[in-house]
Amino acid sequence: GQIASARGLVKTYGKGEAAVRALDGVDVDFARGELTAIMGPSGSGKSTLMHCMAGLDTPTAGTVMVDGEDVGRMSQRRLTRLRRTRLGFVFQAFNLIPTLTAEENITLPLDIARGTLDRAWFDTVVDAVGLRDRLDHRPTELSGGQQQRVACARALVSRPAVVFADEPTGNLDSRSSGEVLGFLRRSVDELGQSVVMVTHDPTAASYAHRVLFLADGRLVGELEQPTTETVL
Ligand code: ADP
Ligand code: ADP
Question: Where does the ABC transporter domain lie (predicted)?
Fold first, then answer.
């Protein structure tokens, strides 16, 4: 089954002469239990697609369904609730709170949404991401790769329906990237999560189950079981 989908998705920025059609009629399905990568050149609409899927941006036309909900028809209030309780986010710039420990950063979404921590799930995620001995550290005491793994654990702590990762390895060296990507892949294969990742890095995309290619706001191709060679 699918965890998220778009039909006839159009997003235009600006008006009249200056209007930019960032998405030009995208039909797409994201499968449950898969790591899907969205690739394409700079300006092709990758971030816009992810933001529309995640309810961070309002489509100009078309339908977006996430976890059975019509995101376009939800009130801001319910959308915020959906994002906080059923979606997870990982960004290029880790976006951790510097004054909080790794553990406090990971559990922060639950504090904000007034959710209850599932301790067994927290332990599973922390062990899978390899952060057991770093939980008391603050972000400045962690490497970039470790900080991004904290951000990944934070994205997973509420056991979301889908995790959206926007260039998660954009600020990392290749070794740290491998650790983050390996974890995102294992979060799907071993923990049963669903992940949508935007990247322009073929190595990152090779970790995905499926790669979608965007160009000029349109879906122009798709690849199953990619490898570094086939993605290039
Ligand atoms: P990508 O993530 O593939 O680099 P984006 O989705 O960021 O592409 O951008 C797609 C197009 O939409 C680009 O032409 C970009 O300049 C334009 N765009 C994106 N966000 C905005 C915005 N907030 N205002 C105006 N134009 C935007
Ligand atoms: P492990 O395979 O020991 O669980 P890894 O973190 O190295 O740990 O990899 C997790 C998953 O990511 C692997 O099972 C594989 O599917 C995928 N993977 C690992 N390395 C690569 C790579 N270089 N390119 C593409 N996918 C990879």
Answer: 4-232
Q: Which of 177, 148, 178, 175 is nearest to 163 (CA)?
A: 148
Nearest CA owner, ligand 2 atom 6: 182
Is residue 13 lining ligand 1, measured as CB closer than 6 Å? yes
The ipTM estimated for the assembled molecules is: 0.85
CA distance 10 to 33: 26
Residue in 13, 57, 92, 218 to alter for ligand 1 test, most ligand atoms within 8 A of Cβ = 13
What pTM value is reported for the model? 0.94
Distance 45 CA to ligand 1 centre (A): 6
The whole-chain average pLDDT of the chain stands at 96
